[in-house]
Structure formats: structure tokens, C-alpha cells
Structure prediction request, 124 residues.
Amino acid sequence: MPYVTISASDHFSTEQKRQLLQRASDAVVESIGAPLASVRVMLHDLPKGYYLNAGQLDTDCVMFVVDFIEGRTDAQKDALIAALSKAGHEVTGVPESEVRVRLVDFPKSNMGMAGGVSARAMGR
Prediction:
């Protein structure tokens, strides 16, 4: 934990997608201090016609959703949002104002760990 899901237009190159994955992982580690071993990042391609932005089809999309266990400070969250927004822009050229980041805090009792034990039960 944390888990980062990136949704991006499918026309970005393989190298751009790899950079999005790597930079998202780096942003999580650097911004909120998560151990690298616990960070998971996946990318979903959005084919043409599968993203509607302010009523317009086929605009470029870069969106990050980060699920993590509650307890991060507002400053850590702000730093993560800034780092992901910057990475999305720099890697794809999508204006930073159009890159979206959504953070989702899960209560410790709602996050399962290996073996089916909650984060709360594991003392996190």
C-alpha cells in the first residue's frame, strides 16, 4: 500500500507509459515516505472515445487515483498531488491544469494485508 491507478489516453508511447509508472512510484515514495516495497502502480489505457472531458470526446487524458491507508498529513497529500500533476504533464505534454489526481484514504480496518489481516490488526 499505496496503490496508484493511472488512466491515460492509449496513444501515448510505450516509453511514456513506462515513465508515468516509474514517476508515479517515485512521487509516492518521495512525497509521503511510503516504502518502495509497498508501492503498486498500474496503468489503464483509454481508447479513443472512452474519455469525456467537459463535454468533449477524445481530449488527452492523464488521471491518477491513489488509494492508501489513512494518516497522511495535508502537506504530504499536497506534495503528492503536485508531484503527480507535474509528472503527468512532463511525460505526456498534457497541460498540468488538465492532469487530475484523486486521493482516497481508507480506514485501517478497511485495508487488508497479506493473509487477510487488516492494517489495524497489523498495528499500522
User: Anything to note?
Assistant: The longest strand covers residues 62-69. The chain has two helices and six strands.
